[in-house]
Specification:
7 strands
Length: about 150
């Protein structure tokens, strides 16, 4: 199995603390900014960063739905890590300053891909598809914060 990685980033017109706080707010903000690819969103424990347990289903393609139960960690300032209890998937959100009143939000997801021909297609196409999903989510986040 090869490791598969998808990464995208966006500059948001808000300071890094504001962007990070919005990303870490699973009770109010996160559910609002998810794209149509996400369903059955539910905060099961916590709701604000470290210690949160959140569930959703991610429909990456018409045939591929991933049932995610994510433990949220904050290993360093400006970083959220979501570890899926149901798979090898780990998503890391990193928010850093990017000039006056601006920040850079980077999201990177890694997981152990399938083997064989299926793994080849997964490694080839999944990062682009997931990148588009997270790019849309970051756009929604920017819109929510910048209102």
């Amino acid at each position: 199995m090869a490791q598969v990685e998808a990464t995208t980033e966006r500059i948001i017109a808000a300071d890094a603390e504001t962007v990070f706080d919005a990303l870490a707010d699973y009770k109010e903000v996160r559910g609002k900014v998810l794209t149509g690819h996400f369903s059955e969103y539910e905060v099961r424990e916590g709701g604000d960063g470290e210690g949160t347990l959140v569930h959703w289903k991610l429909q990456a393609t018409s045939k591929r739905v991933r049932d995610c139960l994510l433990e949220v960690h904050e290993p360093t300032d400006g970083q959220l890590v979501e570890k899926d209890r149901n798979s090898s998937m780990v998503t890391t959100w990193t928010v850093t300053p990017a000039g006056e009143g601006r920040s850079r939000a980077v999201v990177s997801t890694v997981w152990n891909g399938a083997g064989g021909i299926g793994g080849f297609f997964e490694k080839t196409f999944a990062p682009k598809g997931l990148g588009r999903i997270y790019d849309e989510l970051l756009q929604n986040l920017a819109t929510e914060i910048e209102k």
